[in-house]
Specification:
The structure is a homodimer. Chain A folds into three domains: about 50 residues, 434 Repressor (Amino-terminal Domain), CATH 1.10.260; about 130 residues, Response regulator (Rossmann fold, 3-Layer(aba) Sandwich), CATH 3.40.50.2300; about 130 residues, Rossmann fold (3-Layer(aba) Sandwich), CATH 3.40.50. Chain A contains 13 helices and twelve strands. In chain A, the strands form two sheets. In chain A, strands 2-1-3-4-5-11 form a six-stranded parallel β-sheet, sandwiched between helices. A six-stranded mixed β-sheet of chain A has the order 7-6-8-9-10-12, sandwiched between helices. In chain A, α7 packs parallel to α8 and α9 packs parallel to α10. Chain A starts with a helix and ends in a 5-residue tail after the last strand. Chains A and B meet through α5, α6, β2, α7 and α8 of A and α5, α6, β2, α7 and α8 of B. The structure holds a DNA duplex (16 and 16 nucleotides).
DNA sequence: TTGAAAGCGTTACCAG
DNA sequence: CTGGTAACGCTTTCAA
């Protein structure tokens, strides 16, 4: 009850106020802010002085409504936990800021709403672009996005039928490449751990790449364990590892769907007395923070997550600026990084 | 060149269009959307039908300008990489969505702009609240925030002079508690690793807590190593570990400023043949993803990061709704979790 | 180089 | 329960 006035009228300084103080019209203030060259120096200086004196902060909401551009890009990710999208979001935020745009972040995992709902909520901000990490979309969602005519970038995968644009790599090839790498280091009884049954397109693709390599190399039937009901990837890695070794005790190498899964597998393996990598090679995918040489020293498939985010941001901006030949699909590739675990 | 029209006029369906189709005025559509009870059922149904038929998505920009509420909360974090704020952002996003709000995320680390600039940019969206992770603020920044009269929540710390509200824990107490815990498990020559010289208030506080405990327990002079120029926390942990053991070879326990630092220290220690925890106990802080029992099994100070984010979101909403007695400061506490490393 | 007027799409405020 | 009218704070467009 001490400051009802402040609550009732958190009155922002408006462009009008600045204009009055500087003795010009609002449009001139607007110009001084956005195209300083088009305003005579003395005028501009008076305006700048007024802005500082009043502590004026432009109202982007009004600006956006008027100019019909929000300078906002929305990104929808499952979770930030688990390291997967952390650097991608960093890269995206960075690229956007460099271009004077901001990031609207939505997380989907703990949400009961459908993807359509989430997309609709994002679209209600009239973003200049949308970054999607999910990989699979309902026809309704696709239609909604087409209808909105907003640049869309799908990341961390290269869908055959991208909604609009995509920045990522071939998860299938990555799975195949690591399997072949393990083969090249002498392993012959290679298992796979950590893909989920459903809603995990990327994991499934990695698994399929692994299976393809197995076939090409004549390594026999796949040894893979998947499951649904486990919360964390690390725990999944630990549990699936145990199951895999029970079913195929002579396994000499395990490729994990991600570094988080690999962390669980490596930890459980060491706990159970397996010598990693001598007795059992374990490899991951992602090259997450903790996998580096100063940390777990995990042999992994490095994915340039930061670059994915940055490129996605740039593509949206370019498209927005009317660039006709923005690439539809950018393959950032991957790289096998051999460290201590395989 | 196939659809220049679509590019030139990504014409959004407006409330006007819906109103026309349903044979009502726009304000009735608006009401049907926001207060369905205040609209007669048949009318509402016609409106809903029109909305679906036209694929209408409300324009929050216009709505915000008119209602003077953005339903947007801005969060400024240093980076998403490094696991620290991942679950806090998840918690925040989740709490906000439950209340019909969205998250505007800004990262500061790779930015050359000052905090003032970043805050100003955020404020230009007229957010309903601001979540700050930095810990230290220039007088200009504080003034700007005061001027804006926007709810502000500082997280992961409990400043003595919060700008407005705070959700966190005592970093000093946490440092003290872990040091005492190490003492209780029999360690007497305890080192500290991983605080930066500057711009790292929380790390400094943990170090001070460690030093305080040392004094109280009569454990002699601090053994701490800090440095500035290392990129990743994991690498810092590895490097500082080496330096610490060179200067004080008889050290029998190390408390690390964060789990990332601890990961580096543990890894380097094992690489150099130290038996962890028998010969050398190593503890971290944070209870990050990778530190769990299925992973590194790191003894650590668990910080409820998700809860911090969720509570911050709720506080902003409550404040916005005019709750007079929103707590100024919420201590979420911490908890020592003993696992394999100490 | 500057300005006046007309929106942008929605919601607040009053009427009916 | 429904609607008319006037904002909201800025940018666009057209003139001067």
């Amino acid at each position: 009850m001490t400051e009802p006035a402040a609550l009732k009228s958190p009155k922002w300084v408006t462009m009008q106020d600045v204009a009055r103080m500087a003795g010009v019209s609002t449009i001139t203030v607007s110009r001084a802010l956005r195209m300083p060259d088009k305003v005579k120096a003395p005028t501009r200086e008076r305006i700048d002085a007024a802005i500082r004196a009043l502590g004026y902060v432009p109202d982007q909401i009004a600006g956006s409504l008027s100019s019909r551009e929000s300078r906002l890009v929305a990104a929808l990710v499952s979770t930030m936990a688990g390291s997967i999208f952390a650097s991608t979001v960093d890269g995206l935020a960075q690229a956007l800021r460099e271009q004077g745009h901001q990031l609207l972040l939505g997380t989907t995992e703990y949400s009961s709403e459908s993807e359509e709902q989430l997309i609709a909520t994002a679209l209600s901000r009239r973003p200049d672009g949308l970054v999607l990490t999910s990989g699979e979309h309902t026809p309704a969602a696709r239609q909604m996005l087409a209808h909105a005519a907003v640049p869309v970038v799908e990341v961390w995968d290269l869908p055959e039928q991208p909604i609009d644009m995509a920045v990522g790599f071939s998860n299938h090839e990555a799975g195949r490449a690591m399997t072949r790498f393990l083969f090249d280091t002498g392993r012959r009884r290679i298992g796979f751990v950590g893909a989920m049954q459903e809603g995990d397109r990327r994991g499934r693709l990695r698994l399929m790449g692994y299976e393809a390599a197995l076939g090409e190399l004549g390594l026999g039937a796949p040894r893979s364990v998947a499951d649904a009901g486990i919360a964390s990837m690390v725990e999944r890695g630990a549990r699936n590892f145990v199951e895999l070794m029970q079913r195929w005790p002579d396994t000499d190498a395990i490729f994990c769907a991600s570094d988080s899964v690999a962390l669980g597998a490596v930890s459980e393996a060491r706990r159970r007395g397996f010598a990693v990598p001598e007795q059992l090679a374990i490899a991951g995918l992602g090259d997450f923070d903790f996998a580096g040489e100063h940390g777990l020293a995990l042999t992994t498939v490095r994915i340039p997550g930061y670059a994915i985010g940055a490129e996605a941001g740039r593509m949206i901006i370019r498209r927005k600026q009317g660039d006709q030949d923005t690439p539809k699909s950018v393959d950032v590739g991957f790289e096998i990084v051999r460290r201590g675990s395989a």
